[in-house]
């Protein structure tokens, strides 16, 4: 049985490409070794800290390959999918929100979920940060102290007790989120918080854990009961806002008839100029046929790129070589925070997003590469990770039409 | 037939691949339901750094791992977390001695043999409340846990009586692995499988076989599990050499042979490679025939709404959910379960200290089934079906039964 | 600040702390000055081997005897930082075949306990070992966590009324005629200056001893010998594995704590504070590792670092330039007879395993100089508590497991068993108690004391959590907390960078994602860095 489109990777770009393909009635299969980058991201869409990057990208940047039109269309369709799932993403292309981080720095994002909207640092009303005693992944005191250095209308951190946290082990954000999904739990929390919030500002920032299945409902429930606004602040992984995006994209993909197999190690090969894919599960190798293969396996972090001891770098699925200096010491900067040269390593592609070989020719006409595996972008310095993922996914699916 | 190569890195060494990203921790259904379990990362790659092969591992809380394998499945870096935990647990029991309860729960084959011998009397003790309370006190098997009824007559006896299998003559040959559940409790499932093979002109043989050993393995009794595994490898290899494929409808049995004999029990043996290479879950096998255009697809269409729960072990096979796809072709409205796990995880949910955890793990599934209110629930694993039936009151069937009906054009 | 003491010790490594402990036990008023933190120098940067003596039996029988005796003694005196790993000397295919018999005979001569075992038995004990080894000998090697050992010693010094003053840098030695009478210097945390008068100064500054001596106008030539080590992410072996051949690069793997360390190289460097780790050195160790463990390169390398051995160069024998050929044995220099400067002794060279013996020798000599007759007590005084047991790798996991079930409620206080560093199982309670004891906001001190941030996530999670606790507990100004966080991440990075390939590169991208994308630490305001000496290696 042959698929129209076979996608490798279940991160933001792979899942989004899956949704787009399935929504266009393509017979689509998504194969992934595990779940991907959504679970460790912030759950926001960063396109570019400096909007001119989208307008005038350097020639070797992924934005140059995908084009402005794809960006606009990708963000529009992404917002439609999120809104249909009852989890609208706010914001508009070309503009950025400035939001507080868990250290009290400011981070930028183009699209953010409604659960973060009240954290907009451009708003004048005072706010306070809440600390959940016993939860180790968010220090309100530390973040608040840094925010006070830059913003005067911030008040002291408030400790808000959370009942029923695990006591025999440490809690993750997902533990808290699952509790917030329950209306009875929220009622308990409202009663427990009320005394601590007397006289507090009417805008409260919390670690991002306001529910997995029904975050908006949870937020509104607590807000209306306590008469204030809540906003989430991204914290150490696992990312609850990221999991929400994963869940809604996966559901959208499957609801539109897409097939998802998570678990196998995916191997690709190029035979007679055509990309072919097989999946290895526990040693059993199964071939899958597809008209178009979209490689969304990620950068180094998510296993799409592999750097060898001997200085060779290649993609992990097809083994395509990646151009990079042979000396390992040239991959990184002596400063931890970078910028590191390896950030821009990846597959070079043409405007059809076909990976190019050393001669600048497409490695296989039916192969596309999208997301963090693409060369030419320092995503951390540019704030462009999710923008590249969405726009390239949109463009890749468009090329299969 | 697909190529096969056994995993090259040993299970424990995969802890090197962990970057602590917590994806497994966020996916673990047990940790979500019970704070007594520190979570897959904590007891897996994290605790692994503190274990010494010649010294006892002190972290008994890892026994709260149900072994469902969701962690290994979602890990994007290839850490074999569940497998690592199973090995560490066995080490603890090796040192501390195996509890009688774990010994007994591992002996599904022995239980089946005794149960069949004394049928129907053998079904009585499990239903006597006071006796169950005593068993709970003495052995720690929860008095609320429901056990399936022994069947009147085993599948093997039926197969020997029935001439059906012998009639079928085809180029393709299957040696059927029925597992304990089909043999002693639910022969109807193996019978449905035989019927489906017959409809596809597949010659079926019934090899000598043991319990796959998974119940022993997951109860920490690796020594016995290895004995059973080696017996199966020896008995099944003969058939493979004669050109038979090993196929089973119990998805956990086939997974044990394909994956766990090597990755968890650590068996390294060319005969295992031969057997593992040629062992299939029944829907993996049928989907493969379908892909090759060799499947009889003269299904009689019929509308029915079912909830399909792909059990943990089925997903670990990694071939997707062909049962759901087939049922849609039979005309069914298939609602796929959103739950990661039903909770019981083999014998985990039968244990006194874990029963409530297992029920809590299954709650999202039970809720979904209650909300959708289908006539039947479909699920590939026997222990999951029994657990779902006990906690939802719905009939739970194996998808192969549904497939046999689709050929037949009616429900049995 | 001004004070006076009987014995002043310079250097907070194993030699200095050993001497301070010995002197304090003998009832001397004792002060120790260290310019950095405990174990900041060479003692904190070695592979963690407590020598059986086997390594020295052929070249330096005296050292071999001393190691064997001290090894047995230290297991009794400070068991909680020593793991009884046992050791193996194995003959790999590339090793000279005749060395094994010579080695075995020399062990007997030097009273170094040794048993020849079969390669098969060695392989059963250590399954990853090269199956082609031809000979195997069991010795009494152990591994020792030098951070723990030095903390124990510092506690023992204080318990015996000695003083240990950290981050106190000596800038000048005060002389009165031909006699040294004290030192002046700077408290690096407060910026205050101090003066300490002493009846005698013991220079235990290791690789930095030459500088101290120079301040006193004496020439002591200590050649810093750089030795590279790589920590592998897991315990590839649980026994110390030595190559059965003459000492050379990459001839040992030590399981210490949760990792295994391969060591070492040996290159003379001009400056103990500034030296680079070269790609070729890393490659050399990885290649040697493959000789011992064929799958070595498939495992994750976690970090690389170098220590500088204080190798004393007798100024009369200038031709000895290969630092490995210089004596690892210690030398006690009496500057009165040597240079005509009274009031100071220098102890140079030596090795961690024999620190107690060196200290005894040093303080014995100091006693003679001071005309005091006081017996050394270190042989019979426990450094640990009486109920302390030998360390095992499972210790932290075991204590976590036993603590976590005794918790009543979830909301009152953060649970004390809350794990802040998940890789090394460092709890909130341990961090809080460290902060109470030290008052130091320096995250690197937490690392040295508790192993915070030493595991595979390379501080990805714990640095944020820990800086939050430090910030809350010590009520710091945000720029100071921010600087601590960034400085710690940068220090960790120095160790990671030489092994940046494969899994480590993946981990780096993850940590960068956390600290830059999620937390935005690159934009936080920072304070002038607290001056922490030494600057450690630069690559």
* Range of helix content of chain C: 25-40%
CATH hierarchy, class of the largest domain in chain C: Alpha Beta
Largest sheet of chain A: 7 strands, mixed
Instruction: Please tell me how large the radius of gyration of chain A is.
Output: 22 Å
H/E element order of chain A: EHEHHHEEEEEHEHHEHEHEEEEEEEHH
Which percent range describes the beta-strand content of chain C?
15-25%
- Overall form of chain C: globular
Helix content of chain A: 25-40%
Classify the fold: give the CATH topology of the largest domain in chain A.
Answer: FAD/NAD(P)-binding domain
- Give average pLDDT of chain C, whole number: 90
The CATH architecture designation of the largest domain in chain C is 3-Layer(bba) Sandwich
Question: What is the rounded distance between the termini of chain A?
Answer: 20 Å
Main beta sheet of chain C: 9 strands, mixed
Overall, the morphology of chain A is globular
- Tell me the strand percentage band of chain A: 15-25%
**Tally of DSSP β-strands of chain A:** 17
How many domains of chain C? The number is: 3
CATH architecture of the largest domain in chain A: 3-Layer(bba) Sandwich
How would you describe this structure to a colleague?
The complex is a heterotrimer of chains A (401), B (412) and C (539). Chain A has two domains: 2-88 and 243-399, FAD/NAD(P)-binding domain (3-Layer(bba) Sandwich), CATH 3.50.50.60; 102-233, Rossmann fold, CATH 3.40.50. Chain A is built from eleven helices and 17 strands. Chain A has helices spanning 12-23, 52-55, 62-66, 68-84, 140-150, 173-180, 183-193, 215-226, 240-255, 379-382, 385-399, and strands spanning 2-8, 28-32, 89-90, 97-100, 106-109, 112-113, 128-131, 158-159, 203-207, 229-233, 259-262, 265-271, 274-281, 284-295, 305-307, 313-315, 367-369. In chain A, the strands form five sheets. In chain A, strands 1, 2, 11, 12, 13, 14 and 17 form a seven-stranded mixed sheet that branches. Chain A has a four-stranded parallel sheet with strand order 8-7-9-10, with helices on both faces. In chain A, strands 3-6 form a two-stranded antiparallel ribbon. In chain A, helix 5 links the parallel strand 7 (128-131) and strand 8 (158-159). Chain A is globular. The model of chain A has no long low-confidence stretch (mean pLDDT 95). By secondary structure, chain B is α/β, with parallel strands linked by helices. Chain B has 22 helices and eight strands. Mean pLDDT of chain B is 91; it is low at 1-9. Chain C is α+β, with helices and mostly antiparallel strands and 539 residues long. In chain C, helix 1 runs parallel beside helix 5 (146-159). The chains are: A alpha/beta (401), B alpha/beta (412), C alpha+beta (539).
């Amino acid at each position: 049985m042959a698929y129209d489109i076979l996608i490798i990777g279940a991160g933001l770009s792979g899942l989004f490409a899956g949704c787009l393909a399935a929504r266009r009635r393509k017979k689509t299969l998504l194969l992934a070794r595990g779940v991907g980058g959504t679970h460790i991201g912030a759950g926001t869409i960063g396109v570019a800290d400096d909007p001119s990057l989208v307008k005038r990208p350097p020639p070797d940047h992924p934005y140059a390959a995908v084009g402005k039109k794809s960006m606009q269309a990708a963000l529009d369709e992404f917002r439609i999918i999120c809104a249909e799932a009852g989890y609208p993403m706010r914001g508009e292309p070309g503009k950025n929100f400035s939001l507080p981080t868990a250290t009290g720095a400011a981070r930028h994002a183009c699209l953010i979920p409604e659960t973060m909207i009240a954290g907009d640092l451009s708003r004048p009303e005072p706010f306070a940060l809440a600390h959940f005693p016993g939860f180790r992944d968010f220090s309100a005191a530390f973040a608040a102290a840094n925010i006070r250095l830059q913003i005067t209308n911030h008040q002291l951190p408030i400790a808000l007790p959370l009942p029923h946290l695990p006591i025999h082990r440490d809690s993750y954000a997902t533990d808290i989120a699952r509790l917030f999904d329950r209306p009875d739990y929220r009622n308990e929390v409202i009663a427990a918080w009320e005394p601590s919030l007397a006289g507090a500002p009417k805008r409260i920032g919390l670690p991002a854990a306001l529910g997995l299945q029904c975050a908006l409902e949870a937020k509104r429930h607590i807000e209306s009961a306590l008469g204030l606004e809540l906003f989430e602040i991204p914290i150490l992984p696992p990312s609850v806002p990221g999991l929400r995006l994963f869940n809604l994209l996966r559901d959208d993909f499957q609801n539109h008839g897409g097939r998802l197999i998570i678990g196998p190690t995916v191997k690709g090969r190029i035979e007679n100029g055509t990309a072919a894919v097989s999946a290895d599960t526990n040693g059993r190798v199964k071939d899958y046929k597809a008209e178009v293969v979209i490689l969304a396996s990620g950068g180094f972090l998510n296993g799409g790129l592999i750097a060898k001891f001997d200085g060779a770098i290649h993609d992990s699925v097809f083994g395509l070589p990646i151009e990079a200096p042979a000396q390992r010491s040239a991959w990184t900067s002596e400063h931890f925070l970078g910028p590191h040269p390896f950030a821009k390593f990846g597959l070079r592609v043409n405007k059809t997003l076909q990976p190019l070989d050393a001669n600048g020719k497409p490695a296989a006409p039916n192969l596309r590469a999208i997301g963090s595996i693409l060369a030419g972008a320092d995503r951390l310095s540019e704030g462009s990770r999710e923008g590249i993922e969405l726009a390239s996914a949109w463009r890749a699916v468009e090329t299969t039409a | 037939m697909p190529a096969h190569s056994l995993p090259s890195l040993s299970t424990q060494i995969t802890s090197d691949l962990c970057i602590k990203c917590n994806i497994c921790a966020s996916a673990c259904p047990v940790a979500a339901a019970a704070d007594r379990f520190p979570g897959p990362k904590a007891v897996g790659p994290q605790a692994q750094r503190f274990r010494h092969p010649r010294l006892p591992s002190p972290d008994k809380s890892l026994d709260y791992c149900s072994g469902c394998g969701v962690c290994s499945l979602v890990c994007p870096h290839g850490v074999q977390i569940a497998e690592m935990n199973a090995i560490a647990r066995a080490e603890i029991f090796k040192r501390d001695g195996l509890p009688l309860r774990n010994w007994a729960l591992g002996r599904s084959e022995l239980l089946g043999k005794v149960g069949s011998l004394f049928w129907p009397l053998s079904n009585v003790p499990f239903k006597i409340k006071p006796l169950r309370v005593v068993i709970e006190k003495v052995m720690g098997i929860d008095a609320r846990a429901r056990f399936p009824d022994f069947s009147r007559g085993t599948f093997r006896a039926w197969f020997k009586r029935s001439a059906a299998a012998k009639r079928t003559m085809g180029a393709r040959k299957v040696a059927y692995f029925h597992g304990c559940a089909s043999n002693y409790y639910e022969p109807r499932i193996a019978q449905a499988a035989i019927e489906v093979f017959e409809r596809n002109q597949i010659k079926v043989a019934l090899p000598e076989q043991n319990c796959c050993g998974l119940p022993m393995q997951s109860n920490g009794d690796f020594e016995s599990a290895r004995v059973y595994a080696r017996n199966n490898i020896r008995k099944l290899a003969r058939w493979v050499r004669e050109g038979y494929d090993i196929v089973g409808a119990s998805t956990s049995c086939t997974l044990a042979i394909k994956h766990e004999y090597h990755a968890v029990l650590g068996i390294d043996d060319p005969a295992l490679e031969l057997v593992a290479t040629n062992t299939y879950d029944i829907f993996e096998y049928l989907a493969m025939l379908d892909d090759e255009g060799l499947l009889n697809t003269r299904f009689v269409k019929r509308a029915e709404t079912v909830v399909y729960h792909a059990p943990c072990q089925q997903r670990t096979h990694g071939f997707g959910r062909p049962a759901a796809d087939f049922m849609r072709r039979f005309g069914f409205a298939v609602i796929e379960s959103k739950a990661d796990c039903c909770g019981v995880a083999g014998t985990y949910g039968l244990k006194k200290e874990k029963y409530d955890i297992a029920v809590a793990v299954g709650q999202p599934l039970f809720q979904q089934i209650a909300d959708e209110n289908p006539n039947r629930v479909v699920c590939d694993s026997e222990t999951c079906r029994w657990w779902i039936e006990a906690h939802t009151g719905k009939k739970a069937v194996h998808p192969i039964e549904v497939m046999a009906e689709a050929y037949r054009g009616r429900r049995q | 600040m001004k004070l006076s003491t009987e014995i002043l010790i310079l250097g907070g490594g194993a030699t200095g702390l050993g001497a301070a402990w010995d002197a304090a036990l003998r009832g001397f008023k004792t002060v120790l000055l260290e310019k950095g933190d405990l174990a900041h120098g060479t003692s904190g940067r070695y592979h963690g081997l407590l020598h059986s003596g086997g390594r020295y039996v052929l070249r330096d029988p005296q050292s071999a005897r001393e190691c064997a005796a001290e090894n047995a003694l230290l297991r009794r005196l400070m068991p909680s930082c020593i793991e009884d790993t046992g050791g193996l000397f194995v003959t790999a295919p590339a090793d000279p075949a005749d060395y094994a018999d010579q080695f075995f005979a020399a062990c007997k001569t030097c009273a170094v306990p040794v048993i020849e075992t079969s390669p098969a038995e060695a392989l059963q004990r250590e399954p990853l070992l090269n199956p082609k080894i031809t000979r195997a000998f069991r010795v009494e090697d152990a591994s020792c966590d030098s951070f723990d050992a030095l903390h124990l010693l510092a506690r023992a010094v204080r318990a015996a009324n000695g003083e240990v003053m950290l981050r106190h840098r000596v800038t000048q030695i005060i002389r009165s005629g031909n006699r040294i009478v004290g030192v002046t210097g700077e408290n690096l945390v407060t910026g205050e200056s101090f003066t300490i008068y002493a009846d005698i100064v013991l220079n235990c500054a290791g690789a930095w001893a030459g500088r101290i001596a120079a301040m006193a106008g004496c020439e002591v030539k200590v050649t810093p010998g750089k030795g590279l080590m790589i920590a592998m992410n897991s315990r590839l072996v649980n026994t110390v594995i030595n190559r059965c051949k003459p000492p050379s690069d990459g001839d040992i793997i030590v399981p210490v704590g949760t990792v295994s360390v391969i060591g070492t190289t040996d290159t003379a460097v001009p400056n103990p504070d500034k030296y680079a780790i070269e790609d070729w050195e890393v490659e050399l160790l990885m290649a040697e590792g493959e000789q011992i463990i064929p799958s070595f390169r498939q495992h994750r390398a976690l970090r690389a670092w170098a220590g500088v051995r204080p190798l004393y160069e007798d100024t009369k024998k200038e031709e000895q330039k290969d630092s490995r050929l210089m004596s690892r044995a210690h030398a006690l220099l009496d500057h009165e007879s040597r240079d005509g400067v009274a009031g100071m002794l220098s102890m140079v060279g030596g090795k961690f395993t024999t620190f107690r013996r060196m200290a005894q020798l040093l303080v014995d000599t100091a006693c003679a100089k001071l005309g005091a007759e006081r017996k050394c007590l270190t042989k019979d005084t426990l450094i640990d508590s009486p109920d302390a047991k030998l360390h095992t790798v499972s210790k932290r996991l075991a204590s976590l497991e036993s603590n976590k079930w005794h918790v009543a409620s979830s909301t009152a206080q953060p649970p004390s068993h809350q794990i802040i560093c998940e890789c090394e199982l460092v709890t909130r309670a341990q961090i809080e108690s460290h902060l109470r004891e030290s008052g130091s906001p320096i995250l690197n001190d937490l690392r040295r004391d508790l192993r915070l941030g030493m595991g595979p996530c390379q501080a990805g999670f714990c640095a944020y959590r820990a800086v939050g606790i430090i910030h809350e507990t010590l009520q710091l100004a945000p720029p100071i907390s921010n600087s601590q966080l960034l400085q710690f991440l940068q220090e960790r990075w120095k160790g990671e960078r030489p092994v940046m390939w494969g899994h480590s590169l993946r981990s780096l991208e993850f940590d960068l994602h956390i600290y830059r994308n999620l937390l935005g630490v690159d934009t936080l305001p920072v304070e002038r860095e607290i001056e922490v000496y030494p600057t450690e290696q630069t690559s």
